[in-house]
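Obj.: predict assembly geometry.
Materials: sequence records (below).
Method: joint structure prediction, all chains together.
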Amino acid sequence: AQTVTQSQPEMSVQEAETVTLSCTYDTSENNYYLFWYKQPPSRQMILVIRQEAYKQQNATENRFSVNFQKAAKSFSLKISDSQLGDTAMYFCAFIHSGYALNFGKGTSLLVTP
Amino acid sequence: DSGVTQTPKHLITATGQRVTLRCSPRSGDLSVYWYQQSLDQGLQFLIQYYNGEERAKGNILERFSAQQFPDLHSELNLSSLELGDSALYFCASSVGQNYGYTFGSGTRLTVV
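Observations (raw structure tokens):
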């Protein structure tokens, strides 16, 4: 079974600073997809960023970027210029063909003024 | 608005009862997924339907069942409810799993 591990239960960052959330996964598959989802206090699950395993280039969406290390099975999320609205639970997720999206347990991020 | 509609938003019921949660997927999405989010278990996959047929099963209890109708809306039925079933239940839909899922706003179930 594929497992997704987020080793940081809680993190804190000051507004305008940069923070990196860690995620590792375990799989024997070669083709798969990785995601980061954000869950703010409203509880809505929001897709932040997506990475295709066969692409070496790291995905970027505005202030959000990933560091994808396929050999190390690592998929970290970097948030630049943190904003108060970034306060949320962040979930790393993994999927490959024939299976449903598998989530890590999440990292709670608090952005402080 | 994500385009995935879940009703009701909140539900309070007693142990032993049965409830039905409803989900309308985003227009054009054929796949519907149900997830349970409780405090100590994170997001757990329950079941997937694709165009009316069950496609995959996760950690779904025998007391729980689901179906997807011809208009693609889905219902999750929870019966013989226990206190431990209290959780946030999400429905999600996708046009293709590799693009990620779009989630509804969830149904908060409280069993008392």
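Conclusions so far: Chain A touches chain B at residues 33, 35, 37, 42-47, 50, 52, 91, 93, 95, 97-106 (CB under 8 Å).
To do: check interface contacts against the pulldown list.
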